[in-house]
Amino acid sequence: MSRPFGRRLLSDADIETWLHVARSVTPRTGAVLPARRTPPPEPKPAPAVPPAPAPGKGRSLPPPSYTPPISQPRPAAPPLAPFEKRYRQKVTHGRVEIEAAIDLHGLTQAQAHGALHGFLRGAQQSGAKLVLVVTGKGRLRVDVGPVPGGEVGVLRRAVPLWLREPGLRPVVVGFEPAGLSHGGLGALYVRLRRAER
């Protein structure tokens, strides 16, 4: 049988692919599927697997060549460190420069939390070592706390908790209440870790 000019005969692999696809659809009435030119190869028998030796007898099998990757545990967040007495005195007396400051007055907790994280990460990236976070002292209320006339401030209580969060441990070395010249109880000195390059 001669083939038309410009057309090639299908190979056995092409025919096998066509038959595989044809099995997934409903055949058209009168459609004839192509036949393989050579008979399909006989399936090779599966190699016999030797039985496993009884425990304590024979050689032990070598370990598998593939070992799944072991996920490395994340390093623990570095602990916060208090200021050394001499360093705190230098900061309080203005002999150590406060390189950046943020004032959180008037922000909601959500806004203040986001602003604090962004500020600290930005200050760390710019190489700052010491920053000032102003929280405000809060309103005076007589009926709150164990001591009459105790001070209440939402951000003043929340910011120290945020600074202890594991997400900020790679950024924050430690923090302490600011000296009177920098806002006293309404502000915090925050030491920053060196940014990893």
Question: Quick summary of this structure?
Answer:
By secondary structure, the protein is an alpha+beta fold. The chain has helices at residues 12-22, 85-92, 109-125, 154-163, and strands spanning 100-103, 130-134, 139-140, 151-152, 172-177, 187-192.
Please, could you describe this protein's structure?
The protein is an alpha+beta fold. The protein has a domain at 85-192: Ribosomal Protein S8, Chain: A, domain 1, CATH 3.30.1370.110. It is built from four helices and six strands. Helix 3 packs across helix 4. It starts with 11 loop residues before the first helix and ends in a 5-residue tail after the last strand.
Kindly list the characteristics that best describe this protein:
single chain; 197 residues; alpha+beta; Ribosomal Protein S8, Chain: A, domain 1; two-stranded antiparallel sheet; 6 strands; 13% strand
Overall residue-averaged pLDDT value: 78
Order of helices and strands: HHEHEEEHEE
Number of helical segments with 4 or more residues:
4
CATH top level class name of the domain at 85-192: Alpha Beta
Low-confidence stretches: 142-151
* Global structural class: alpha+beta
β-strand number: 6
Strand proportion, as a percent range, falls in 5-15%
Shape: elongated
Identify the quaternary structure here. single chain
Distance between the termini: 74 Å
The name of the CATH architecture of the domain at 85-192 is 2-Layer Sandwich
What is the CA-atom radius of gyration, in angstroms?
37 Å
Helix-residue proportion: 10-25%
